[in-house]
Structures are given as structure tokens and as C-alpha cells.
Specification:
about 15% strand; globular; 7 strands; about 45% helix; 12 helices; two-stranded antiparallel ribbon; Nucleotidyltransferase, domain 5; alpha/beta; five-stranded mixed beta sheet
Amino acid sequence: MLVNLSLDRPLAVIDLETTGTDLKTDRIVEISVLKIGPDGERTHRTRRLNPGRPIPPEATAVHGITDADVAGEPRFEQVADALLAFLDGCDLCGFNLKRFDLRILYGEVLRAGRKLVLEGRAIIDPMEIYHRQQPRDLAAAVRTYLGRDHQGGHSAAADVLATAEVLDAMVACYPELPRSVAGLHQHFVDADRIDSDGFFRRVEREVRFLKGRHRGSSLAAVAASDPGYLEWMLGQDFFADTKQIVRQAPAVARRGQSEAKRPARSPA
């Protein structure tokens, strides 16, 4: 399947179908993972899940999965250990993985009381490559790079197969792209970026915002002028390393120390 892309370690291509697009409240109803080894061996697993909440009609209209389809399926926490074991040692790939699928998956893992370690993994998103070259979606990518219509779109199983083929075809199409997973990962990462969300970078030993309304400002300056913004960030679905950087900001750190020293109130 992968002719132009070299692998130093297994690559797990992931696609999710969910109850919606809200990163805080929506849940996974189907997950498919295509695991490709450096030797070309492929293992493809697809699992439907009971999200523990109704699947809205508008979501069913996209992926065709109904409440009845998942009524007898396990909850995410019941498959979390097996999934994390399957992903262990893998780099990660998926179409729109960075903006959506990985964030939803990360949240599900946390709610299950487990941890999805991202450090040390290459994270590849063919949509990022595609949008840099030609902004469109997976179906258009299949037409452009594979010369066919995408059959079975919004089926997790079909989407991971198409994603892997599109990624490989992209590497062949653009000579300037690295031919290794690690090289692709580095090609799309700011060398000075210091967190998984890409919110911060280090500039001359100073942490600065890469995006958001304080883009370009230092973390220390924002902590002094707008500490409420940092408190807001701590309540959002950012990755753990992003929140840890926020907690290290002077105003937030002082508040945390103050609260830790405050005597606990006696129950009424």
C-alpha cells in the first residue's frame, strides 16, 4: 500500500465517526485503525461503540450509524486498554487528525482514566499537506491523487484505507516532501513550537503565543494583563502539555500556590 513513504516504526491510520463535532460533549460511535508495519504488514481493526448518549439525526445522516446499531456495543472505557496497546509504539496518521479525531480520542482516553502519550510520536495529517497544497477534503483528495471517486465516504473503514493511499500518493506527487514519517512530521511542525496544540513557541528564552487573540505576545505579558484568558485556557480541551505551560505563567502559578496553602473549610 505504501510505495513512496518509508516507515521506521508502525504507522497507525485512524478515523472516527462520532455523535457530532463538539470536542467537549460528543463521543465516538465507530473507530477504525489501519496499522502498517515497516515490513508492509497490515492489520485493520474497526469497532463500533456505544457513546452513552443518543446519536443525533444529523450525525446519522453523515455516517449512517443509529442508536440501534450501537445499542449492544461496548463503551469506550471497555476497549480503551486494548486500543492503547494496539497503538503502542506507533506513529499516528489520519485525515483531519490534528484538529478533530486526535482531540476527540484524547478526551475519551482521559475520561476512561487512561493516558494517550503523544510525546515521541510523529503525527501526520494528510489534510494538512493537502490544504497547504490544494485546500479541499478527503473526497477531493481521492479524486486528485488517486484518480477515482471516494466510495464509502464517512465510513471509518473506507476512510482510513483512502487516507493511507492518499498520503502515499502525496509523497510521490510532491518531490519537496520528505519520504519518511519522521521527516513529514518535522516538515509541518514549527521547530520552536513547544506544545502539542501549537499554541506556544520559544523565542529567545521567552514563551510567546503562536495563535489566539494574544498571538505574538509573551506568556508573561498576558499573565500580567489578561490572566482571565489563561484561566479560560485551563478550562478548554487543550492537550496536557499546553495546560502545563499555562500553569507555569506567574499569575496562574501564584494563584495555584495560594489555593494550595489555603486551609480547607470545615464541612457545615
